[in-house]
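Session log. Operator J.P. requested a structure for one protein chain; no other inputs attached. Running the standard single-chain path with token output.
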Amino acid sequence: MALPEWVGYVGALLGGGGLTGGGIAALKFKSEKRKLEADAAQVLTASSVDYAVKVSERLDKLADKVDRMEDEQDRQRELLQVHHEWDLEVVSTVRGLGGTVPNPPPLFLASKAS
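Structure written below.
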């Protein structure tokens, strides 16, 4: 027994609908995938920017600290230079009065050869 003609039409319609639905689903998936990738890129970019800002702030603080330490080192060198000159004067005075006193110890480190 032969099937009625409308069965063929319904089958074709359902098959075409399935293909169309599958195609639409594939396009929607591709669109969603692009959106997820864009969202992920945005999150990574935002995280990178936040990290770069924190690193920059930390570097600024470290640079300020180094500047303060260099200023303190310069003041210490000046103080040692004044003290060294005073030491030499005292030794000279003691020796001039007939006393014996050794040379003052060095206040500066010898430079290392690089």
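Operator note: The radius of gyration is 43 Å.
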